[in-house]
Amino acid sequence: MDDIDLKIIGLLALDAKRSLADIGSTVGLAPSSVNERIRRLTASGAIRRFTLDLDPAAMGMQTLVFVWIALREDADETAFREYAENHPLILECHHVTGAWAYLVKLRVNAPPEIEGFLTDLKEHRFLGRSETVIALSSPVPGSFTPKEV
What we know:
- 38% of the residues lie in helices and 20% in strands.
- The protein is an alpha+beta fold.
- It has a four-stranded antiparallel sheet, with helices on one face.
- Strand 2 and strand 3 (102-108) form a beta hairpin.
């Protein structure tokens, strides 16, 4: 990956619908060369996907929640990872160091959905203990793409 590839990635990150001609004029390449580089970056896995960045409030998911999770001693960790990957509220799941095993990021419409999520973790016999943090605001928000729309 060279400097031009990095510039192309930066331009696409700002607007994935940007035309090849516009990108090419910015980086000094013909549109066909830009297309070839994007194709190569996608094939190599450097670009994993093209997606939308939605407004969570407009999607009815205005509450951002982080949940620290310690699994039960008898929990099936592989099953938990599959559960996290497929759960519609879990936007991110990170295996972490320290007192907790996982940190998950959720978007919900209202606090009762958090309780429902925790109850579901208990019913699946994953949850040993947890700590829930609700974001009051996000001065530097991340992008938002729900798993299910």
